[in-house]
Amino acid sequence: MIEGYYCRGGVIGFIQRVMISEPSTVKLKDATCLQFIDPYGDTTFNQLQIPKLLEELEALRPNCHTKEEREELESIMRFIGKAKGQIHTYMKFYGD
Question: Residue 21: enclosing H or E segment and its boundaries?
């Protein structure tokens, strides 16, 4: 699940289901943000990291092989884009 929230309380919203591609199909070793999303723990991105996170998600577009994968990625990018430039706003990825 991905949740957007303000540091003083309040939730922007959340995305309940997020597809995970097989690690072999996406090379994350060169990614600044994506490589640190922990599938078992929680990972939070701040305002300095969100633009880079969006850039890295955009780079995943060629790895979307189906319409559903493309729509899921676009949905995630739109959601995270809501937090971009918002003071004291974070995006949190929840692991299992």
Answer: none
